[in-house]
Amino acid sequence: MKIFKVVTAFAAIVLVITLLSFSQKKEEEKQRKTSEKVLSETKVAYFASGCFWCVEAIFESVNGVEEAVSGYAGGHTKNPTYKTIGTGRTGHAESVAVYYNPKKVSFQTLVTVFFGSHDPTTKNGQHPDYGSQYRSIAFYKTEEEKQILENTIKRLNKDVYQGKIVTEVKKMEKFYPAEEYHQNYERLHPENPYVQKVSIPRLNRFKRKFPELLKKEKH
C-alpha cells in the first residue's frame, strides 16, 4: 500500500511538472510569435547626436518606437568598441538604431525628434561631450529617407538656424550594437551623476518641447 501511495504521489508530481513545462513552452511560443509580429511591423532608423545614453532614452519615449539600441556607426573600421571610438580614429559616432512602427510614427517625425532634441549647429559634440564620436549624423537607407533629411535641413537652415547646421547626412553602411552595459543605461542607472546632470535634463527638455509625441504613461 505504501509503495502504491509513493508511486501515485510520484506520478502526480511528474504530471504537475509536465503541465508546468507545457504551459511554459506555450507562453514562450506566444512571446516568440508576438516578438516576430512586432519585428515584422517595424522599420529601423539610425541617428547620432551626442551621448547615446541620452539619445536612446529620448527615442524610446516616442509613441510608435518599439525599441532603441545604442551602438556605433559612420566609421571606417570593423568591430568598434567604446574604448576604440573614444580615440577619434575609427570614424564612428555613438549612434542609436530606432525600431519603430511606421503605422504609428513616420520617419519624418523621427527626423523632427532628432533635430528637436540636440543642437545640430555644434561641430563634433553636444555639451558636455566633445569629439568626433559625438558628432551629429542622420543616416538614411533609401533615397526617400535621404530626400526627407535634405529637405528638413534645408527648411531648418532657412527658418531656424540661418545655414549653420553641420549635421552629416550619410548612407547607413553598418551598425554595430554597443556593449550590453550601455543598453538602457539612462533607465537602469538613474543614480549615475552624468545621467542625473545631463541625460535626464535633456530627456525632460525634449518632453516639454514635444508632449504630443510621447507615449502615454502606464499607471
Helix-strand layout with pairing:
Elements: H1 2-40, E1 43-49, H2 52-60, E2 65-73, H3 82-85, E3 93-100, H4 107-116, E4 125-126, E5 129-130, E6 136-140, H5 143-159, E7 168-171, E8 176-177, H6 185-188, H7 193-209
Parallel strand pairs: 6-7
Antiparallel strand pairs: 1-3, 1-6, 2-3, 2-8, 4-5
Helix pairs in contact: 2-7, 4-5
Describe this structure in words.
This protein is α+β, with helices and mostly antiparallel strands and 219 residues long. The chain has a single domain (38-213), classed as 2-Layer Sandwich (Peptide Methionine Sulfoxide Reductase, Chain A). Helices cover 46% and strands 18% of the residues. The chain has seven helices and eight strands. The strands form two sheets. It has a six-stranded mixed sheet. Strand 6 (136-140), helix 5 (143-159) and strand 7 (168-171) form a beta-alpha-beta unit. The radius of gyration is 23 Å and the shape is globular. Mean pLDDT is 88; it is low at 30-37.
Report how far the terminal alpha carbons are from each other. Answer: 55 Å
Uncertain runs: 30-37
The total of beta strands comes to 8
Under the CATH scheme, which architecture would be assigned? 2-Layer Sandwich
Strand neighbour order, sheet with most strands: 7-6-1-3-2-8
Strand content: 15-25%
- Mind telling me the CATH class? Alpha Beta
Give the SSE order as H and E letters.
Answer: HEHEHEHEEEHEEHH
- Give the quaternary arrangement of the chains: single chain
3D shape: globular
Overall radius of gyration: 23 Å
Total separate domains: 1
Mean pLDDT: 88
Number of helices: 7
> Roughly what percent helix?
40-55%
CATH-defined topology: Peptide Methionine Sulfoxide Reductase, Chain A
Name given to the CATH homologous superfamily: Peptide methionine sulphoxide reductase MsrA
